[in-house]
Every structure is written in structure tokens, then in C-alpha cells.
Design a protein that fits this description.
Elements (H helix, E strand, L loop, with lengths): L17 H8 L5 H13 L5 H8 L5 H13 L3 E6 L2 E6 L3 H14 L4 H10 L3 H11 L5
Antiparallel strand pairs: 1-2
Helix pairs in contact: 2-3, 3-4
């Protein structure tokens, strides 16, 4: 026997459960890390998780901020020093340095580095290609 349809005035039951809603509300990968790093760069001084929480102005729990900072520390993106009973965090690199580190990480994952680099270079704009050539020829940034 098929399930009965809801009667008049009875709301239809949603097929999505709490896990589906959480997945739909989930931020893109790395968004929280980027937001927290941006707050640290803007501060120009070490921040505690509570200070980061205040700086980013979201409803994130301090424990969530602490977890993200710990993950960034494990990845080498921030350093930490004792501050009271907890830690204060400082970024190890600026935004450009972090992007370069990510590019190196991705490149190290591939066995065929020459193909990856060739495809990367083939997708550069003319301006970026000139800049890369200048840098490879000894230019500094």
C-alpha cells in the first residue's frame, strides 16, 4: 500500500534531514581558513582565537575558530605563542606566499610535473607569461 499523502492543512514532509541541511549550509573548502588568515594579516599583530572571532565578526563559536587556527598551525601557515592560558597566532607568510605554498603543494602531488607545468603555462595570459619569463630570467618580486 503506498504511503498516504498529507491531508489538507498538513505540511508536506521534507525529504532532507539535518545532514542534508548542514551540507547545503557548508562553506566552500578553505573559506574559513582564508577568512581567518585575512583577519590575522589585517591585524598585523598576533591574535588570540577570541580576538580573531571578534575581528571576523561572524557567529562562529570560539572553539571553531580555535580548531581552524590549530589546523593552520599544523599546515605551517601560522605560528603560535603562549598568551595567557592559550595561544596567540601569527601568519607565517603574506597572501602571495601562501598562494605560492599551495601551488607547490599541488605540484608535489603529481608524478608528471612537466605536463602539469606545461598545462599551467599554456593557460597563462600573455601578460602573466611575460611576467613569468622575466622572473625566470632573473627578475625579482
Amino acid at each position: 500500500m503506498p504511503p498516504a499523502s498529507p491531508g489538507p492543512g498538513t505540511p508536506a514532509r521534507s525529504e532532507s534531514g539535518p545532514a542534508d541541511r548542514a551540507a547545503a549550509e557548508r562553506r566552500p573548502s578553505g573559506e574559513l581558513e582564508s577568512t581567518i588568515l585575512a583577519a590575522l594579516w589585517a591585524a598585523g599583530a598576533p591574535l588570540t582565537p577570541g580576538q580573531v572571532q571578534g575581528a571576523i565578526g561572524t557567529d562562529l563559536a570560539r572553539t571553531t575558530v580555535t580548531t581552524i587556527l590549530s589546523r593552520l598551525h599544523d599546515k605551517g601557515a601560522v605560528t603560535r605563542n603562549r598568551s595567557g592560558r592559550g595561544f596567540a597566532y601569527t601568519p607565517t607568510e603574506d597572501a602571495a606566499g601562501l598562494t605560492a605554498r599551495r601551488m607547490h603543494t599541488e605540484l608535489r602531488k603529481e608524478e608528471d610535473r612537466s605536463t602539469v607545468l606545461a598545462r599551467f603555462v599554456s593557460q597563462l595570459t600573455d601578460e602573466d607569461e611575460r611576467l613569468l619569463r622575466d622572473l625566470l630570467d632573473g627578475g625579482e618580486r
